[in-house]
Structure formats: C-alpha cells, structure tokens
Please model this.
Amino acid sequence: MSNLRTFDLNLLVAFDVLMRELNVTRAAEQMFITQSAMSHTLHKLRQQLDDPLLVKTPSGMKPTERALALIDPVRALLAETERLIHPPLEFDAATSQRRFVLAATDYIEFLLMPELSGLIEKIAPGIDLHVKRTETSFPVAQLENGSLDVVLGFESVLNPPVHLHRQYLFSDKMACVVRQGHPLISKPPSLDEFVAVPHMLISRTGSNVGIIDQELAELCLERRIKLIVPHFLSAPLIVAKTDMILSLPYRIAEQFTKIAPLVIFPVPIELPDYDLCMIWHPLRDKDPAHQWLRDKIIVIGGDINQ
Model:
C-alpha cells in the first residue's frame, strides 16, 4: 500500500490529464510525452492507488468509482500547489495597508525620515511607518521574527552579524560647529586649541566618551566635555548660545546651520568616513513589500549622497 513518502506526487498531474481526456493517446499529447510513456504512467498510478482507474468499454475508456472520487480532491490539491509555487503577487503600494517598523537613531530620523515620510504619504497613503530607536545590542531576534523590518545606521557602530543583508546608502564624516563670532574660528584651530575649548557631546547611551575622545587618547590628549545630551534636537540652540564646540556628522552640521547661527569647521584629527547602511534579514529579502520599502530608502539615500 502506498503512503505519502513512497507515492510519486508527479503522478497526480498525469491522473488529472487522463481524467480530462479519458484517452491515453490524447493525454500523452497533452503531457508532451509518448503514448508508451503515458501507458507506463497509468500503470504506475494503478499500482500506487490499487485501482484500475480507467477501464476499456465499447464506448471508450471510463473512470472507475475510485477515480471519480479522486478527481475533485486531486484538482483542488494541484490548484493549491500551483498557488504555493507561483511567484507572489506584485506589491501594490497605492492600496496597501502595510505597516513597516524601522530601527534608527535620531541622526537617521533627521536626514532620511522627512523625505521618506513625504514620499510614502504621496504614493502609498495607506502605509504606516513606526521608527524605533536603535538599541545598544544589535536587534537580530527582532529582524528574524519580523517585528522589525530594517535597521539603519553606521555600519561600524552597529557591527551587524555577517549573515544579515546590508545595503550601503551614503557616507558621512565628522565635523565641528560653534556659534558665529566664536574666537576659535578666526583661523582653522590647531589640535591644542581644539582641546582647550569646552565641548558638548551628544550621547544616546549616556557615555562620556565619543569617537573623538578615543582618537585623542591615542595622542595622550583629553578634552573637557562640559555638557552631555542624549538627543540632537536641543544641540544647535545650545551651541549657538555658548562657547562650546560640538562635534557631529557633517550632514547634520549642515542642517544645524539652517536652524541656528552656527559655523562649521573640520575636526583637527584624521578620522575615517562612516558608511551608513540599511540592514535586513534574508528571510524577508524576496518579500515584494519589503523590497519596495528598501528601494525607496535606497533612492533617498542616493539623493542624500549627491
């Protein structure tokens, strides 16, 4: 007696054709095989189902009661199988009610979200976005279980696991801002002058050590951090009313000069550029909706990079 492990499911396709044609020769033509091959297939079906299935009569081949009982279930099974293996339907952003969850720092919110939100509101009004703050530890589990769609941030800071997919968006470098009229900007400051002035630090984790402090330590130097804040929001207004220096990504510094009377100057230390990337789980790589979101983020990242 056959069971699922020993039964050749490909025979069900041949069974369906045989039941439609009720003729071995015509069934063979439909299957693009020889009559001999189709006769062999019918023989295997009879063996595995333990029934003649088709019987010769004076008026042609007729299905047995067993065959008649199998016709509808087999066709339903083949239709469902076809649905399962068929490529997924294209994602219709204009009518979708999808909700996407992104993890990002306020740096990303400041640069990327205004453009992304405006674009989605225009072309996909039913889609919702939820932006969460990136955590100290990389959210691998959330990406895997689908509670998080993408993570956005500097690759060197996030240090994502190698099995995750990633896409470069744009790069940035560190810069400094001070208030207009600050005595330090009459000429490009030296490293000693830079260290001598009190500094402000944006630290989402509360740490009193930033990238610049690590570089200064290697030079046996130390700056005074007079103020630490967790967010970018208040930073330009604070710097504009004090003599502190704020070191931050250049693209944010550019935006700050539009908000407050600030001046940008380069950090007097050699620092690498930082690549900003988008990270997602391979489980969602082929999801049409997910691909759509990633494509929109890539386009906006390309615009920022120009």
Notes: The mean pLDDT is 89.
